[in-house]
């Protein structure tokens, strides 16, 4: 299903009256899961994108932007079909998404051949941006997070570790990025295993981890699986410290896991408590549209991704083309986002700073070490 969002009623009325876009309207595509098992993430991305789009279109620019949202259902085949649809629409000069690395990478093959810039807010598999010069991301990769967390854990004296992750391309990058760094630092991976996303019973996996007697557990999961795993750790009386990637950073982790989340440590590049004006502006706007709920890292990533793309479209004016938008994206330097400043290096990777976070007193709080 296609969701079209136009900023002004007059533009919307014109769209119904005639199939062509107004000459001063630029079109973008956004593929994301709006239904299916990961729909909650796609719905958050769409909401964040709408906030960014509304702000841009209300800023008195000499042109407006329309975003076409398409539901990929986190399915690689559907994502590829959407990519073909976007490519065939010559009015679309840039695309955002998808959510998972697997779907993003499958779609990237289409965008590569067509020469259409793709900016994913969450595809963190190291190979994603290697596909072509048209792939960008504004999230830290597991090639960055893995070594960062391995060093953090080693500084705490955790030299013998267990690592688990979901059985996906992204999960494999979590395990490899972290495990290689542990071994390079003189540590030992005592246990490593993958699990299926949506697993309800982790007791067998937890028993295996216990038998390995690790100093700490490193995990690659999203908040739903994370909450389930943490609750069962608590039920089984396991006290081994747990670390995770930024993928688990969401208020929903604490909401679902309750006090079982206490003490979990992970990385992030967004804190809703950050007093910076742009962060507090986004948090306020998000709460207005989310029944006062606080945003997690992924909505913040989407908000920044859309704003980075909009800035590239503006830089490519007048008469932005697909190639001009791609080149403008590549020139992104110190973009002031809510997830920190973003600069794309020569490989179109974001230069980002990570923050260490711990769950204390039922909330995420930054830690110094």
> How do the strands line up in the largest sheet?
8-7-9-10-11-14-15
- Considering DSSP H and I runs of 4 or more, what fraction of the residues is helical? 40-55%
Beta content comes to: 15-25%
The beta-strand count equals 15
Q: For the record, what CATH class of the largest domain applies?
A: Alpha Beta
| Distance, first to last CA | 46 Å
- The secondary-structure class comes to alpha/beta
Order of helices and strands: EHEHEHEHEEHEHEHEHEHEHHHEEEE
The Rg value, from CA coordinates, equals: 21 Å
Tell me the domain tally.
2
Mean pLDDT: 93
Globular, elongated, flat, extended or rod-shaped: what is the shape?
globular
Find the CATH superfamily of the largest domain.
Response regulator
Low-confidence stretches: 1-20
Family: Belongs to the leucine-binding protein family.
Pfam families: Peripla_BP_6 (PF13458)
Signal peptide: 1-22
Organism: Azospirillum doebereinerae
Structure description:
The chain is an alpha/beta fold. It folds into two domains: 2-140 and 276-342, Response regulator (Rossmann fold), CATH 3.40.50; 142-268, Response regulator (Rossmann fold). Helix content is 42%, strand content 20%. It has twelve helices and 15 strands. It has helices spanning 9-17, 39-57, 76-88, 101-114, 142-155, 169-184, 203-212, 223-235, 251-257, 277-289, 297-315, 322-330; strands at residues 2-5, 25-32, 64-71, 92-96, 118-120, 135-137, 160-166, 188-195, 216-220, 242-244, 265-268, 335-337, 340-342, 355-360, 363-366. Strands 8-7-9-10-11-14-15 form a seven-stranded mixed sheet, sandwiched between helices. Strands 1-3-2-4-5-6 form a six-stranded mixed sheet, with helices on both faces. A two-stranded antiparallel ribbon has the order 12-13. The longest helix has 19 residues, at 39-57. It is globular, with a radius of gyration of 21 Å. The N and C termini lie far apart (46 Å). Residues 1-20 have low confidence and may be disordered. InterPro entries: BCAA_transport, Leu-bd, Leu_Ile_Val-bd, Peripla_BP_I. One of its GO terms (biological process) is amino acid transport. Keywords: Amino-acid transport, Signal, Transport. Residues 25-361 form the Leucine-binding protein domain.
């Amino acid at each position: 299903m296609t969701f079209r969002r136009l900023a002004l009623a007059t533009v919307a009325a014109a769209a119904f009256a005639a199939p062509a876009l107004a000459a001063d309207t630029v079109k973008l595509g956004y593929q994301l899961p709006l239904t299916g098992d990961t729909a909650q993430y796609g719905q958050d991305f769409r909401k964040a994108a709408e906030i960014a789009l509304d702000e841009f279109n209300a800023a008195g620019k000499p042109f407006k932007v329309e975003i076409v949202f398409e539901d990929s259902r986190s399915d690689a085949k559907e994502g590829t079909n959407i990519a073909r649809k976007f490519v065939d629409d010559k009015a679309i000069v840039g695309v955002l998404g998808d959510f998972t690395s697997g779907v993003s990478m499958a779609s990237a093959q289409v965008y590569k051949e067509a020469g259409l810039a793709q900016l994913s807010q969450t595809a963190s598999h190291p190979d994603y941006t290697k596909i072509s010069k048209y792939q960008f991301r504004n999230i830290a990769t597991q090639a960055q997070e893995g070594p960062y967390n391995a060093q953090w854990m080693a500084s705490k004296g955790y030299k013998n570790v267990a690592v688990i992750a979901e059985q996906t391309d992204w999960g494999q990058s979590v395990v490899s990025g972290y495990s290689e760094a542990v071994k390079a630092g003189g540590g030992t991976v005592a246990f490593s295993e993958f699990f299926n996303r949506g697993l309800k019973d982790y007791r067998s996996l937890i028993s295996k981890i216990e038998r390995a007697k690790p100093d700490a557990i490193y995990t690659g999961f999203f908040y739903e699986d994370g909450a389930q795993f943490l609750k069962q750790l608590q039920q089984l009386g396991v006290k081994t410290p747990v670390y995770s990637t930024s993928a688990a950073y969401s208020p929903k982790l604490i909401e679902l896991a309750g006090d079982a989340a206490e003490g979990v440590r992970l990385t992030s590049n967004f804190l809703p408590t950050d007093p910076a004006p742009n962060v507090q502006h986004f948090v306020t706007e998000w709460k207005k549209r989310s029944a006062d709920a606080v945003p997690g890292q992924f909505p913040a990533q989407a908000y920044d991704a859309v704003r980075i793309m909009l800035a590239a479209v503006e830089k490519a004016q007048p008469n932005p083309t697909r190639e001009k938008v791609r080149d403008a994206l590549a020139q992104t330097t110190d973009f002031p986002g809510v997830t920190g400043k973003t600069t794309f290096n020569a490989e179109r990777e974001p230069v980002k700073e990570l923050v260490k976070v711990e769950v204390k007193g039922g909330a995420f709080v930054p830690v110094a070490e």
